[in-house]
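Support request from a user on the community tier.

User writes: "When I paste my C-alpha cells into the form, the page sometimes reloads and wipes my input. The last time it worked, I copied everything first. Here is what I submitted, just in case something in the input itself triggers the reload:"
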C-alpha cells in the first residue's frame, strides 16, 4: 500500500489508472476500504451479500464504483432511516 493514500482508501485508488470508477481492486484493498476483513468479504460472497464482485477463474476483484455504490446503499441517516 502506498503511504500517500488516505486511510480506508485502496492504495491504487489514490492515483493512477485505478482512480477511475471502473478500476479493479483486490479483496484486500476492498476490505480495507470497507473497514472489514478479507474473510468477511469471502463470507458475504458465499451468502450472496455485500458489494458486487467480478470473478475470473478463481480470482476475485471488485470495481471501485461497485464499492462506492455499496457504501451509499448501506448509508443510514441520522433519523435512523436508510438514506
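"...and here is what came back when it finally went through:"
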Amino acid at each position: 500500500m502506498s503511504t500517500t493514500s488516505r486511510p480506508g482508501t485502496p492504495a491504487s485508488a489514490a492515483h493512477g489508472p485505478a482512480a477511475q470508477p471502473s478500476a479493479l481492486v483486490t479483496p484486500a484493498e476492498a476490505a480495507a476500504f470497507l473497514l472489514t476483513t478479507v474473510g468477511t468479504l469471502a463470507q458475504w460472497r458465499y451468502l450472496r451479500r455485500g458489494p458486487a464482485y467480478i470473478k475470473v477463474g478463481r480470482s476475485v476483484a471488485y470495481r471501485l464504483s461497485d464499492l462506492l455504490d455499496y457504501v451509499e446503499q448501506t448509508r443510514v441517516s441520522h433519523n435512523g432511516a436508510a438514506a
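Agent notes: The reload is a front-end session timeout and is unrelated to the input. Confidence is low (pLDDT under 50) at residues 1-7, 12-18. Residues 20-73 form one domain. Escalated to web team.
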